[in-house]
Amino acid sequence: MDISRSDQAAPAAAPVVAQQPEVAGAAATSEATEAPGASGGGLRARLAPVGLVLAGGISVQFGGAVAVSVMPRAGALGIVTLRLAFAALVLLVVCRPKLRGHSRADWGTVVAFGVAMAGMNGLFYQSVARIPMGPAVTLEVLGPLALSVIASRRAVNLVWAGLALCGVFLLGGGGGFNGLDPAGVAYALGAGAMWAAYIVFSARTGRRFPQADGLALAMVVAAVLFLPLGLIESGSRLVQPGTLALGAVVAVMSSVLPYTLELLALRRLPAHTFAVLMSLEPALASIAGFLVLSQALTAAEALAIALVIAASMGAVRTQVGRGRTRTREEAKRGVGR
Asked: 36: Cβ–Cβ under 8 A, 6 or more apart, which residues?
């Protein structure tokens, strides 16, 4: 769960963008550029950014699977602490954000962004410590999906919401969550709520800070918030060479590498296409959980995940269609004047 897009202002389709922190702002960049080279060039040029996004998603989810395997050594809070700390260090070195010239409101926004980021990661890792990754990511995605449905205010989005609820119903074994740890389910839903907050504050941070400065500062806030929790849970285990090395691997796979790949992709990929691809995260998480952690899904769970993915994609396409309609209407009014 790991890198959401935020280079900074989130695009129209961003509410369904997926998971996790650190890339929330990158989608913002694509809103302005809207894939300059997407309409031209050969097939390879058009498919390259799609491949980058998928590679980033695979890296995120397999990084999450590695994190789960490291939890017995460092604990859920400990691995989150290491991941955020290493990611913060890398972003500080790369972005070199300016500390001066920002208002109190700017700092309040970046702190709120950091709190949302810390909450999203912490709750998600608590979830995957208790339930398989596929169901956990599926439940988490409900947060951005709900935000997208609410923001759109179109009747058709009730269809997507109903489809997602059907998926949740199946995921719970037909109305209850007897097959899944209730605490894990609650943590995943909480992570989804924080993901929605992350998207909102990512956009606000992007409007107030240049480049990825706000993202880097928010990552520092998240790391500082989690440091005491990681130390309390893991203590000296957190600084053992083996644990530090694995924490660095998780940070690279879940944050640094996906952020870089997606940032490159968003220079040539429309934001709505990016958001649709990110809707595949639950499927990628299920594959990673199966290959790395031997977490097999039942047929009902696989169908539930497919329904939530379809709902996410439908919500994205609905938002995109609404935006294009509004743009055409505004253009007509402009011509009339």
From this structure: 267, 268
